[in-house]
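User: Fold this; tokens only.

Assistant: Input:
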Amino acid sequence: MTKALRFLAMLVAALVLAATLGTLVPRPLWPASAAGEGTRHILVLKNPIHTDIAIPVDDAVRQRFHFLVDAGIPVDAPEVRYIVFGWGGRAFYLETPTWSELKAVPVLKALTLDASAMHVDIAGAIAEPHPAVTGFDIDEQRFAALLDYIDASFQQGPNGPLVIENAAYSRFDRFFEANGHFNALAGCNTWTAAGLRTAGLRTGWWNPLPASLRLSMRLYN
């Protein structure tokens, strides 16, 4: 028992050290070259364990993601201001719509290895400043690169992205099959961080938690 406790303590200490260094060491190490004028305002939305990227919509964005309309998400409604994208573990996403429905199997898969899913929602105006919202201005070229990154996260079938039938939290969101596998080391927040780096922003080297991602973004942007 003593050896087991010692191993557990060492494991926890190693994870804490990795998370700390992952926050404090920037990625990339050096700032990117100067960009154009930041005309696109993107948002990072967070809760205690998860982050999403909110993309401002215009006609071009609606056209690019028009498959969402076919899946039942009314991105073409005039009151929609943002499309909200998130990537995560398939089992945890689909089987845990609320904390009261938390189950052992989805948690185990999230901590080990799981298939992934894309969750897409819509939003109207999002108030800033807000503790759960962080905004960044990026230029058109980096905005286009971010859209490419998000688009590439969807698993493609013969007719486009594969919607997961009968899977939604409300009338206005849907789940889609995604590329990649989810685990505790490469999860939803590392997906968000990679997307932000694609958009020309700097993150920590490894950000498994929303708090560490938010802190690193404040430090380096």
